[in-house]
Amino acid sequence: MVAFASSILFLGLLSLLLPASASTKPYPPSAPTRNPFAADTPPLSFREAPAFRNGETCPDNGANGNTTIHIAMTLDANYLRGTVAAVLSILQHSTCPENVVFHFLWVRHEPHVFSSIKSTFPYLNFKFYQFDTTRVRGLISKSIRQALDQPLNYARIYLADILPQQVNRLIYLDSDLVVVDDVAKLWEVDLREKVLAAPEYCHANLTNYFTDAFWSAPELSSTFDGRQPCYFNTGVMVMDLDRWRNGGYSQKVEDWMVVQKHKRIYQLGSLPPFLLVLAGNIEPVDHRWNQHGLGGDNIEGKCRGLHPGPISLLHWSGKGKPWLRLDSRKPCNVDHLWAPYDLYRSSKHSFEE
């Protein structure tokens, strides 16, 4: 009943926003990101989420857990509010929420973050994993936005190494999104023997994601020979972890990060090395599963509207994050689609249960 009501609410909000799809309203530069768990700042407080239970048609996981849906996300104080909203959205729209297991990766030991997840979702199936930042020490190059340079942003490269060997298939999701459809539909995507599946955007000009130094060096740009590379966003991926491990893909991505340290060939964090290794060789997923760019660009974070077509996942990739814009009382129209999933106890933007 809760899921049904939330779906009606979401559709109502969506209908109000569709006419504004061409909006480019500028958003003022945001203040520097502050750790909400700093010594002089009280920890964030969240309302407890409802206990979501499986429907009658859900299969029993059994001893082998064959029907388990594995989802990996990163976890830190600065994005905790987004993570909580994302988890709630997934559970709320899942037919079989008890079959979903979350794998949270963290860098800093932040007890308040861990306790927030446990107290907000007391019925949640989840596990915590520490990401060893020495894996990327000396490999991260400065990008156009500081948030992209954080070691945790690179943890997705090593998911196959961090998670248990018995986890052979995984959905990776960023923390600045909400799912408005049953995540099982994304889980069931046929990878067709590919290592990764994600929405592709072949209309995007791939040239813009790499520098002149890259394109002018045949020994580098020839990596795309024999492929038809298309842009894809690494914030939403279905991954075959067995193929990733067996194919040595973590090392392949690292190799391009080493090249970047010696010869600047791109400007954006962890995305370009993924493109260099996999663009043109992934299984495309329907665009409805990543309505990305809602956070605007990486410089100004201008407001953006929705792309036409059906929507299963809303993604605030870019500089602007909905919780910050809502708190500033200068939200973009699309931010009101995120607000119903905000369990932040002091939030004035959440809809009451």
Descriptive report:
The chain is of the alpha/beta class. It has eleven helices and eleven strands. It has helices spanning 2-17, 80-92, 111-120, 159-162, 183-187, 212-215, 218-221, 241-247, 249-262, 271-278, 322-327, and strands spanning 69-74, 100-106, 125-130, 169-173, 177-179, 196-198, 200-201, 231-232, 236-240, 283-284, 313-315. The chain has a seven-stranded mixed β-sheet with strand order 3-2-1-4-9-6-10. A two-stranded antiparallel ribbon has the order 5-11. A two-stranded antiparallel sheet has the order 7-8. Strand 1, helix 2 (80-92) and strand 2 (100-106) form a beta-alpha-beta unit. Helix 9 (249-262) crosses helix 10 (271-278). The protein is globular, with a radius of gyration of 20 Å.
Key features?
single chain; 353 residues; alpha/beta; 7-stranded mixed beta sheet; two-stranded antiparallel sheet; 11 helices; 11 strands; 26% helix; 12% strand; globular; disordered N terminus; disordered C terminus
| Poorly predicted tracts of residues | 1-6, 15-40, 349-353
Shape: globular
Strand content: 5-15%
Structural class: alpha/beta
In sequence order, what are the helices and strands, one letter per element? Answer: HEHEHEHEEHEEHHEEHHHEEH
Count of helical regions: 11
- Bin the helical content: 25-40%
> pLDDT average, as an integer?
86
Terminus-to-terminus distance: 12 Å
Strand tally, please?
Answer: 11
Radius of gyration (Å): 20 Å
The major sheet is characterized as: 7 strands, mixed
Query: Numbering strands along the chain, what is their spatial order in the largest sheet?
Result: 3-2-1-4-9-6-10
